[in-house]
Specification:
Blueprint: E1 8-12, H1 16-28, E2 34-39, H2 56-63, H3 67-73, E3 77-79, E4 81-85, E5 93-97, H4 110-119, H5 131-137, E6 156-158, H6 161-174, E7 178-181, E8 184-189, E9 195-200, E10 204-207, E11 210-213, H7 220-225, E12 230-232, E13 241-247, E14 257-262, E15 265-271, E16 276-282, H8 289-298, E17 309-312, E18 316-318, E19 322-323, E20 326-328, E21 334-335, H9 343-356, H10 365-391, H11 399-406, H12 411-423, H13 436-445, H14 462-481, H15 486-496
Bound molecules: flavin-adenine dinucleotide.
């Protein structure tokens, strides 16, 4: 309650989290604030965050970034969703597309009508009623103003994370962010326990009033210096290692991420303009590193462009995200594994929260507590959504997947699944990130089907229901078929883009 208002904000770390924070603070804070960033080229970044969700476009738009500059500068491509290959059983596939599936009739969500039609053998696959899914599967993309009956088509990006960080660095430095290159050797504490300064090599000292810890998994400030513990979720999300390797592109990039199940984890494929990003996420208790490398390399679409790069992590979160005068952002705050591409989004929401809770004078305990409460809820709800993908599998006889089916679920997820099974209802808690379209696509995609549907879905006659579903699927099929190929869209954008101007 007695602290002075922060005027200098020090960002420790210059990965995606550090530079996203620096760019946003330099854009939104007034002249009364000074922003400094410390990073070490010798330590480097994780740099494999390459797939995003549609909210990234709000972040870029907030910074005034033009897509026509941004996509060529980051070798970016369009992402309409994630294809889940072999998650239920080998050969099975579904897509979690962004945006709506079908459309509600009155107050009754679309999936209730689909469930009724399915039970009568009248329904196509759920994804056939989604424009995102149809466009993704046919490799097409267009930007357009949605006009009924053609629905909105939300999209995100795949990009080269190192190029994105470099792009934001140019942006932030142009707006006055001061960068210090060097290794943080120690953290100096004030008599009240707050962080006073970072001590760097070369006998340098970077002082500030508020510190943003973007130092990655190590959590140098929040964990090492301030002693905030890490809550381990390995019993729910047991994958703890990844190997990442780029490969040569083969043909036009698909406008979606692919996540393919392997015996002890899953493999991502993220198509960029200049290369394909690949990685195997696996449980070290179930697969050796050598076997993982062989498995990854065996399943590439093109020639490997380097040796696989190992990454180790523990899924979980910090016990507090804002402690004393330090806020953890990015991997320093926690890690939920990349299955639904939520890490960069968590950086983005942390930045938005820092801006909305920016201390006016002294840091107030009530602000800190609410910041932490909101962040915990966000982490917990995304965790549950990820667990669902692992839990609802039918891969009998594979030890990791057997254990995932048998696990004791977090209470809130168990409640959600019970509600779904009983009545096909999804109740969204506390503004959680994933809403009904996401949950229904994954629940139905993973073949976790409910026992009943909403009684109002029984109102239309069989013929009317059939016509309604055919109309919805027809709109998605025709609208997606009329779009240009995703590759053509990117080539046109590249041809028309000027030089990067952030
Ligand atoms: P880092 O990239 O680790 O950056 C840490 C920074 O701190 C660096 O600049 C480093 O130099 C600096 N630093 C550390 N210690 C010191 C020191 N002592 N002195 C000075 N500087 C220091 N996210 C997504 O949204 N989509 C994805 O598809 C995705 N895929 C992923 C796949 C894997 C396998 C992993 C592990 C993560 C993935 N992520 C993904 C997460 C994403 O990579 C991170 O959220 C993102 O890169 C942010 O990382 P960061 O900036 O917090 O940490």
């Amino acid at each position: 309650m007695s602290e002075q208002p922060p005027r200098t904000i020090v960002i420790a770390g210059g990965g995606t989290a550090g530079w996203m924070t620096a760019a946003a603070l330099s854009r939104f804070l007034g002249k009364g604030w000074r922003i400094e960033l410390v990073e070490s080229d010798a330590i480097g970044t994780v740099g494999v965050g390459e797939a995003t969700i549609p909210q990234i476009r709000l972040f870029n738009a907030g910074l005034g970034i033009d897509e026509a500059d941004f996509l060529p500068a980051t070798q970016g491509t369009i992402k309409l969703g994630i294809a889940f290959q072999d998650w239920v059983r080998p050969g099975h596939r579904y897509l979690h597309g962004f945006g709506q599936v079908g459309r509600a009739l009155g107050l009754t969500p679309f999936h209730h009508f689909w469930l009724r039609a399915r039970s009568a053998g009248q329904a196509r696959p759920f994804g056939d009623y989604s424009l995102n899914n149809m466009a993704a599967e046919s490799g097409r993309f267009a930007r357009f103003e949605a006009q009924p009956p053609v629905p909105d088509m939300p999209y995100a990006y795949h990009f080269d994370a190192a190029l994105y960080a470099a792009y934001l660095r140019t942006y932030a430095e142009a707006r006055g962010v001061q960068r210090h290159e060097g290794r943080i050797l120690s953290v100096e504490r004030a008599s009240d326990g707050n962080i006073a300064a970072l001590r760097l090599d070369g006998d340098r000292r970077v002082a500030g009033a508020l510190f943003i810890d973007c130092t990655g998994f190590g959590g140098l400030l929040i964990g090492e210096a301030l002693g905030v513990s890490y809550i381990d979720w390995g019993h729910w999300l047991p994958c703890d290692r990844a190997l990442a390797v780029p490969s040569a592109i083969s043909g036009d990039p698909a406008p979606y991420t692919q996540a393919t199940t392997r015996a002890a984890g899953w493999q991502w494929r993220i198509p960029l303009q200049h290369r394909t990003g690949n990685g195997l996420v696996y449980s070290s208790a179930h697969l050796s590193d050598d076997a993982a490398a062989a498995m990854l390399l065996k399943h590439l679409d093109g020639e490997a462009l380097s040796d696989p790069r190992p990454l180790r992590f523990t899924t979980g979160k910090r016990a507090s995200f804002w402690h004393r005068n330090c806020v953890a952002v990015g991997l320093a705050s926690g890690f939920l594994e990349p299955l639904e591409s939520t890490s960069i989004h968590l950086i983005q929401t942390a930045i938005a929260r820092i801006l909305s809770f920016l201390p006016q004078g002294a840091i107030d305990e009530a602000d800190r507590a609410e910041y932490n409460r909101l962040t915990h809820v966000e982490y917990d709800r995304i965790r549950d959504f990820l667990i669902l993908h692992y839990h609802a599998n039918q891969r009998v006889g594979e030890p990791l997947w057997d254990a995932m089916r048998a696990m004791v679920l977090p209470e809130e997820l168990a409640r959600k699944l019970a509600l779904w099974r009983a009545s096909a209802r999804i109740s969204r808690r506390d503004e959680e990130l994933f809403a009904e379209p996401g949950w229904t696509q994954v629940l139905i995609g993973q073949e976790m089907l409910p026992q009943a549907w909403h009684p109002l879905a029984d109102e239309p006659s069989d013929a009317d229901l059939d016509q309604f579903l055919n109309t919805v699927a027809g709109v998605a099929a025709r609208a997606s078929a009329a779009m240009p190929a995703h590759g053509d869209f990117l080539r046109r954008l590249g041809a028309h883009s000027s030089k990067v101007s952030v």
